Amino acid sequence: MKDLYLAARRLYEEAFPMEDAAFTDALFALCFPHHLVAMSEGGELCSMLFAVPYPIQGADGPITAHYLYAVATAKAHRGKGYAKRLLQGVASRGTPVFLRPMSPSLFDFYKSAGFTPFSPHREWSGEAMAEQTSALRHLSPEEYLTVRDGFLQPPFCRMTPAFLSLSFSIGGAVGMEGKFAALYEKNAETVFFKEWWGDPDLAPRAAAFLGAKRFFARTSDKNGTPFGMGINVPQDTVFLAAMD
Predict the structure, then answer these.
(1) pLDDT tens digits for 96-151?
(2) SS3 letters for 61-99?
(3) pLDDT at 20
C-alpha cells in the first residue's frame, strides 16, 4: 500500500506541479486509497483519478454520485487511452459522475469519453469596496451547507462535509443572513468566490471584509457557459464547487 501511495503521489505531483503541498496532503488523506481508481502496466502506475463521493440533491432526496478529480496519466504513457478507459470504467457503474475540465480545450476530450456539458455559469470580477461590513460573518462548513441549500432548488450537487473540508483547508465561507453565501479561496490581495449565491452586488463588500483588494466570482446562470461535464447527471443540475 505504501508503494501505491508513493506512486500515486508522484504521478499527481507530476501532473499538477503547481498544487499547494498542504492541499495535496489533505487530498490524499481524504481520498487515498478508498477513492483511488488506477491503471498499471508492468507493475507501474500509468493513470489515475479520484472518484470522490459528491451526492446530487434531487427532488425526492439525495442521489449517489461521484466527482472525478485528478485525472492524470504519466508522461511516458500518454496517448494510449488509459485516462479515457478509467473515465468510462467509473461511468459504467451507472451512478452519475461529473468533473470540472481544467481548461476549455478539455471539453472536447471529455465529450469523446461520453461526457456532456452541464451547469451553465457566469463569472465576473471587481474591486473591493469597504462599505459597512458588520452584517457579514464567516460561516462554518456546516452553516455554509445549510445556508447554501436555501438558495438552491433541486437538482444540485451537494458536497459532503469531508469534501468541503478540502476547500476550507485553503479558504472558507462568508455570508450575510438572507442576502448571500459564498465559498472562497484567498490569495494575497485577491479573493476568489468559487461559489456565489444571492445578491452579486454584495461581492465588493465581501471582498473588503476578507481583507482583499479585488475579487473574482462565479455563480449559476442558465444563460452562461457550461461549468462541468457529466454522465447520468439529471438535467438542470447545478454544480459549481470544484477543486480548482
Answers:
(1) 999 999 999 999 999 999 999 999 999 999 999 987 767 999 999 999 999 999 99
(2) EEECCEEEEEEEECHHHCCCCHHHHHHHHHHCCCCCEEE
(3) 87
Tens digit of pLDDT for each residue in 190-228?
A: 999 999 999 999 999 999 999 999 999 999 999 999 999
Which residues, other chains included, contact 86 with Cβ-Cβ below 8 Å and sequence gap of 6+? 37, 38, 39, 47, 48, 49, 71
Enumerate residues 6+ apart whose C-beta is below 8 A from 167: 159, 183, 185, 194, 241, 243
The reported pLDDT for the residue numbered 243 is 86
CA torsion 89→94→100→101, rounded to 10°? Answer: 40
Q: Give dist(CA 194, CA 183) in Å, integer.
A: 6
Give one DSSP letter per residue of 174-229, joined into a string: EEETTTEEEEEEEETTEEEEEEEEE-GGGHHHHHHHTT-SEEEEEEE-TTSEEEEE
Pair 157, 149: CB distance under 8 Å:
no
Helix (H, G, I), strand (E, B) or coil at 37: strand
